[in-house]
Every structure is written in C-alpha cells, then in structure tokens.
Amino acid sequence: MDITVLVPLYNEEESLVELHAWIKRVMDENHFTYEIIFVNDGSTDNSWKVLQDLQKENPEVHAIRFRRNYGKSPALYCGFARAEGDVVITMDADLQDSPDEIPELRRMIVEDGYDLVSGYKMNRSQGDPLSKTIPTKLFNATARKVSGIKNLHDFNCGLKAYRKEVIKNIEVFGEMHRYIPYLAKEAGFSRIGEKRVHHQARKHGKSKFMGWNRFVNGYLDLITLWFLSTFGKKPMHVFGFLGSIMFILGFLAVLTVGGNKLYCLIAGIPHPLVTSSPYFYIALTMMILGTQLFLAGFLGELISRNSQERNKYHIAEEF
Ligand code: UDP
Ligand code: MG
After folding, report:
1. Which atom of ligand 1 is nearest to the CA of 8?
2. In angstroms, what is the span from residue 72 Cα to ligand 1's centroid?
3. Which bound ligand lies closest to the C-alpha atom of 154?
4. Nearest-angstrom CA–CA distance, 251 and 53
5. Atom 19 of ligand 1 has which residue's CA nearest to it?
6. pLDDT tens figures, 22-68
7. Which DSSP letter does residue 26 get?
8. Residue 199: is its pLDDT beyond 60?
9. Range of weakest confidence among 123-137, 228-242, 249-263
C-alpha cells in the first residue's frame, strides 16, 4: 500500500465528508493505493455517525473511536500502530490542511529520501489571532534550538509525511505531537525536510488548542524531551555531577570555617562562633543539597534499571 492518511479528530462532524471526498479525489487522480484512518478522539458530536456512514460506501475508510477525549498525541499513537502504508500522512480534520499537498510530500519521501517531511504553513496568520501567532514563533525558535533541527520553521504543523519505519519506531506520548520531528531525530531518523503548504482558515467549528497555557506546557514538554534524550538512560550522570559540585563547594566551605577556627585557636586569638560565619550556612546547604541530588540520581538509576525500556534500542538492519 502506498499511503496511509491518518486524521485525528475531535468534534469535526461538519468537515469529515468534504475532507474524505477531497482526499479520495487526490488519491484517485494519482493512482495511489491507500487507506484513510480516522481516529475519533472522544467526540461528543455526530462525528462517529458520519464516519460509520462514510465507511459503508468506502472500504478504504477505517476508524478508531476513543471512549473519551485523550488528546491529539494518543490519537496519533493509535493511528500509527495501525497504519500500513509505506508513507504515512497525518493531517488535521478541520480542512485547514490541503490534501492536494499529499503527492509532493510523498515524492519527497520516496524519491528525495527524506524520513520525515513537515508542512510549513505559509499563510498561517489567516484566521489565527495574534495571541496564537506570536507564541508560535517563539515556540518554534526554541524547539529548533533545543532539538538541533535547524531547518524546521513549523514543528506543530498537523500536515506531515513519514516513512513507515519512522512511525513504527517512535512513541508519541503525552502532548508530544508538537515535537514529533524531535522524537524522530532522537530515534535516529535524521533526514528531516520541510515543505511550504497552503493553509486555510478553519471553516467549521473552532480550534481545540487555544490560550497561552499550551505554550507553558509546550516548553515543559520540550525540557522533558531534552532531559529524556540526554540523560534518560543515565540519570546519575546529571544528578551525580550536580551533587558532586554541590558537595565539593560545601566541603570547601567547611574547610574555610574549620580552618579559620583552628587558626584562631592555635594562634590564641579570640575566635567567633562558627555559626556567625556565612560559610557555615553555605556548607550546610551545599552538603545537604549535594546528598539529595546524589540520592535523586540513585533513584533515577533504580527506576531506569527496572523500566521495560532499559534495553530498547532502534536496530536499523541486521542479517
Ligand atoms: N484534535 C484531537 N484531539 C484533541 C484536540 C484536537 O484529535 O483533543 C484534532 C482536531 O480535531 C484537529 C487536529 O487535532 O483535527 C488539530 O486541532 P485544531 O485544528 O483544533 O488545532 P489548530 O489547528 O487550531 O492548532
Ligand atoms: Mg486546525
């Protein structure tokens, strides 16, 4: 099978029929063999009924229904598990992403050899308020820096194409759909490209991702990913290092306080109480913090040693 089109959706009943017809037209014009997987993320409207009706006349339509709303990442995760196409295209259900982009996205994977091609919404300001576009710019700049994927302008674009291998080797969790290129890169898929895509204002319904808090969460997720990819398999390296520094600083402070006291005693000059020196408190805090950090490191190691992921590596090929 050439292509799987994967569409996560939450309350998008008005768009589904048109979206399906559009995808079908593009696929037929290009003679692709394909399937469409809709993941109904706990919609409370008529979306599921619409999908059932679509399926009756169109055998290429498949659908998964979540019992409740879990979020876009879980929807993608379950869709990825089920996808069979050599190239997997994800797109939003709201008709903002154009199925006309599919043939070129696929060509970039199949012919140019990209592992992942992300859409880059050119005219995205259409229909989006400033409170969404400005944080988006900031968000992308940070994501570029932290992930080291310098050529991506639009991490969060719903329209993306993947080589099948990629989606079978990454695990989208939490709200990490914003960082799938980063996940792919960490799994060893480094050929990541970008294509400018047309983007329209939402026709029906309203955006499910609004407000500033999603950017706060986005940054926290980015820090988590960075931490996991750098120290996930060796937590002691970070906690042990920080702990050692703290402990050494603390110990130096102890030497300062103790040395001073000793010197005064030997020289027979009046000596103040150790608690009157700021170094005493520095020593106290640093040594406690250092010990705590060490313990956190050991706990991290204990947890990672016992996790099922401890020896999970991505083997590209073997004989
Ligand atoms: N979506 C989803 N589960 C959610 C929220 C959103 O499956 O909990 C889907 C939604 O139906 C759409 C896509 O994810 O197909 C992108 O959402 P939306 O268009 O609201 O985001 P925006 O384009 O405004 O960033
Ligand atoms: Mg949208």
Report:
1. 7
2. 7
3. 1
4. 72
5. 207
6. 999 999 999 999 999 999 999 999 999 999 999 999 999 999 999 99
7. H
8. yes
9. 123-137
Q: Determine if ligand 1 sits within 6 Å of the CB of residue 72.
A: yes
Strand partners, 80: none
Quick one: CA torsion of 173, 177, 180, 183, rounded to 10 degrees? Answer: -20
| Cβ burial, residue 309 (10 Å; 0-12/13-18/19+) | exposed
The CA-based dihedral angle spanning residues 124, 128, 132, 134, taken in that order and rounded to the nearest 10 degrees: 60
Ligand 1 lined by 285 (C-beta under 6 Å): no
Buried b (16+ CB within 10 A) or exposed e, 42-65: bbeeebbebbeebeeeeebbbbbe
> Nearest C-alpha to atom 12 of ligand 1 is from which residue?
92
Q: Name the token pair of 40.
A: 């109904």
- Beta carbon of 10 within 6 Å of any ligand 1 atom: yes
